[in-house]
Amino acid sequence: MRGRSMRLGGAVLGAMVAVGPVLTGQALAADKLKVGFVYVGPVADFGYSYQHDLSRKALAAAMPDAVETTFLENVPEADSERSIEKLARSGAGLIFTTSFGFMEPTLKVARKFPKVKFAHATGYKRSDNVATYSARFYEGRYVCGKIAGKLSKSGTVGYIASFPIPEVVSGINAFMLGAQAVNPNIKVKIVWVNTWFDPGKEAEAAKALLAQGADILTQHTDSAAPLQEAEKQGKLAFGQSSDQFRFAPKAQLTSITDDWDGYVIAQAKAVRDGTWKSSDTWGGIKDGMVVLAPFTNMPDDVKAMAEETTKAIVDGKVHPFDGPVTKQDGTVAVKQGETAPDPMILGMNWYVKGIDDKLTP
Amino acid sequence: MRLDLVPRIRRSAVLDILAPALAFVAAVMVGGVAVAALGVSPGAAFVTYFVTPLSDVWSLQEIALKAAPLALIATGLAFCYRADLWNIGAEGQFVVGGLAGGWVGVATHGSGGSVWILPAMLAAGALAGAAYALIPAVLKVRLGVSEILTSLMLVYVAQLLLDYMVRGPLRDPAGYNFPQSVGFEAAARLPYLMEGETLHAGVLIALAAVGLGTFVLARTLFGFEVRLVGASPRAARFAGFSDARLTLAVFAISGGAAGLAGIVEVAGRIGQLQPEISPGYGFTAIIVAFLGRLSPPGILVAALVIALTTIGGEGAQIDLKLPLDLTRAFQGLLLGLVLGADVFARYHVRLVPGGPVSRTAP
């Protein structure tokens, strides 16, 4: 039964890939490394999934004769195991699963396909053929916080947040610490929208925050809707994941952009060369994984400060979580002269002092 | 001139089967045009969508897994819709069922793995789903509140409740504060039926539910009551059937089925509680219920067709680079055409002279 059905499926697949070499007359398609990407959102979100897809295209452009890329978009986290296994079964040698919720399914499929390599974004469980990667987004948030602290006239910044996972919470804290560094009385108001991508909900949250007196918006969701709302109302905002300047040329101050190109290409090269090893990568501005879009719509002195801060982070002179860091409840999290260790940032589930919101204990 | 729909006195069995089949063919043809417009050969797309998924054992298992919750939920919904009652909130009942059953799995974690854990989880899931569905039913019976609105709104309540539970009380203490519970132990997981850790025992539960639903609807007094109330509420009242009792019963059945589907998904494929446990099964099941014309055997076929197109759609994304939107558009087209074709199976269409007239057909 199994042999027969495999032949049937194989024949169909074979007929399809056979078209490739005939047209190009080059190396057999089967020789190429197939690289699959699994996205949680649509590639047209102009944010997180879009940015990942740019890296897929960058990979295809960088190694056109060596790789063949493919992707599945809008994959629900609750239903991702089949999608990941489907890619593994269709011959992918390297698979990027790009959302935290894909962690357990990725590990399970990886156990079944020990020869296929997997790279999972933002998770913390690894195995022999599952690597993890993420970016130190909080570094960019700190710079944004400083800009907002300088520019806000009302003294209130609106923050549209997705899910209270450590990545998002540490981002909120880094933003607040940056803002407090220039304006100790700054207020940050938070709206949780419980989604990564929902332009309607994000726009509603933006309206609510602006109505409550915020004059600068920042977001940890993926659509450009909050930026557009700020643009419409003549306020300022930060972009997210991707440079969203074209959506809000008068409102975008900068954008915390993910740049996975280098990582994706290096992983594919390593698989081709047979040198791939499971690893944990957590890159920041220095590594080029977090890129701040050009500083726009701000006076020169603020721009200079933002550039200085960015440089200080790259040089290691400033760390967003340099002590003293005080928690909301008044206890000291990081002492004067110390810096928060990575595990503390990776598991952050508390707010710093001054944030007007409560986290579920 | 106007078109008039006149109900057929005797429905033709041949037409009843032919109508959805022709609708399927028409949907494939329209889909083929769309595929060709995207620069892909319609023949290759047909093979990828409908043939390749049926040609290997793994895909067949995946189709069964995808169809199982849809068939289970839709069978429950058929009781509601047959009785002309509108439970739109199966998604919420699914989530509550998964949460309640999963809670049992979390609470018994590390207790030594008694054989009673899994049955207790399934029972908790079904009961919680039924209880949750009774909220709109009681509101309707007691206060006359529209069950369509309340059952739908309760979906969001259920999703946020699950979200709260996995971030708070049920969070894995060793999970770096990420919103998810501990992974269930083997005793709290549905056993796999085949090698390769794909097909699990949940599909048997769904099959049993379809069989039971068929029997109850066709062969029992209660099934007769459901059908009668839907077809002719006045006649049902004369026959002494109670509206209120029936409302409560069908909501409990549909909620129980959805809740059971929820815990089957959690104890089967997912294996832990997480903020999102359903890719919209509760809503898709409404489509499945109508594609299957509210009869459990038809629902089983419809669930398999929807599962096939979903899995074929993934293959089309990978092999032919066809967008996901095309799959979704095709599924919508299929529903529209099947329901449309049904009109012709149930009515004669007549061309009548004269202007517009008040509607007589139901």
Automatic annotation (TrEMBL), chain A:
Domain of life: Bacteria
InterPro entries: ABC-Purine-Binding, PnrA-like
Species assigned in the record: Methylobacterium adhaesivum
Designated name of the protein: BMP family ABC transporter substrate-binding protein
Keywords: Signal
ABC transporter substrate-binding protein PnrA-like domain boundaries: 33-311
UniProt feature coiled coil, ranges: none
TrEMBL record, chain B:
Subcellular location: Cell membrane
Major site of localization recorded for this protein: membrane
Pfam entry (one): BPD_transp_2
Transmembrane region(s): 21-51, 63-81, 93-110, 116-135, 147-166, 199-222, 243-263, 283-308
Classification via InterPro entries: ABC_transp_permease
Signal peptide residues on this chain, from the entry's feature table: none
Keywords recorded for this protein, A-Z: Cell membrane, Membrane, Transmembrane, Transmembrane helix
Domain of life per record: Bacteria
Topology with respect to the bilayer: Multi-pass membrane protein
PANTHER family according to UniProt: ABC TRANSPORTER, PERMEASE PROTEIN, GUANOSINE ABC TRANSPORTER PERMEASE PROTEIN NUPP
Descriptive protein name: ABC transporter permease
Organism expressing this protein natively: Methylobacterium adhaesivum
